[in-house]
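Dock adenosine-5'-triphosphate; give full complex structure.
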Amino acid sequence: MMNNAQTAPTEPASPAAVHARGLTVRRGTGRTPRTVIDSIAFDVPRGRITGLLGPSGCGKSTLMRSIVGTQAHVTGTLEVLGSPAGHPELRSRIGYVTQAPSVYDDLTVRQNLEYFAAVLTPGRAAADRRRAAVTRAIADVDLTGRAGALAGNLSGGQRSRVSLAVALLGTPELLVLDEPTVGLDPVLRRDLWNLFHDIAATRGATILVSSHVMDEAERCHDLLLMREGRILAQDTPDALRTRTHSATVEEGFLRLVDEANAEAKPEVAR
Ligand SMILES: Nc1ncnc2c1ncn2[C@@H]1O[C@H](COP(=O)(O)OP(=O)(O)OP(=O)(O)O)[C@@H](O)[C@H]1O
C-alpha cells in the first residue's frame, strides 16, 4: 500500500513487530483531506503488550487501521512483521478486533467461530483443523461453558471475548485490539487484561491495544502515548513515571502535554 526505499528487499527487515518512520495518514473526502497522523516514528517490540493511549480523536483507530492494512492514504514507511503493511501474506498473521464487536447475534458462540474459521481456512480437508482451532479459541477466552449460547444473549464483556476469539483463530503473531475494554465494568476489564497477558505469555504473541483510559497504561509492558496525530512518548510505564517525576502514567502524560503546549506556544516576551 505504501513504503519507500527503506523496505526494499535488500534492506534487513526490522526485528520489531511494527516499524514506522515518517508515517502520515490523511483522512476525509473532498479537495482537502486532513492530516490526522503526522509523520510519526515508532517501533512496537515483539512478544510484548504495547498500549496505544491518548485522548479521543488523537488517531489511535486510524493508526491501527493503517497497521492492519485497511486505511487509505497512508504514506511513509510502515513495516509489519517484516512486510509492508497491507501485504496479503500478513492476513493470517494478524488478528484485528475493531471497537464494535463483530459477531452475529443470531448464531451461537461456536457457530460464530465456525463461520469465521471457514472463511479463514476453507475446504473439507481442513475440517479437523478448523474444529480444533475453534475449540481452542473458545477455551482461550474462557467461554467454553457458553459455547452453545446465542451471541445476542451474551453480556457486553462476553461479546468482546467472542470477537477476541475470532481474532485468535488463525494463531496470529500480532493482535491489534481497538479499545477492547470500552464500556466494561472494572471486574470485566481486569479479567480481559489478565487474558491479554495470558495470550502474550503462552502464545508469545505481540499485542497492540488501544485505550483512552490512562489507568490501563499501567497494565502494559510498553506505551505509545499519542496526542493530536503525533507520538508524545514511547516508553515503559516505569520509565515514563520516572522521567516525568510523576506518580502515575496519567500524571506523566499530562506533564508531557503541558510541555508540548509550552513549546508550541512560547510566551510572548514582554
Ligand atoms: N472517515 C473519516 N473521515 C474524515 N476524518 C475522520 C474519519 N474518521 C476519523 N476521522 C478523524 O480522524 C481523527 C482521528 O480519528 P480516530 O478515530 O483515529 O481517533 P481515535 O483516537 O481512535 O478516537 P476514539 O478514541 O474516539 O476512537 C479525528 O480527528 C477524526 O475526526
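Observed: The chain has one domain: 5-263.
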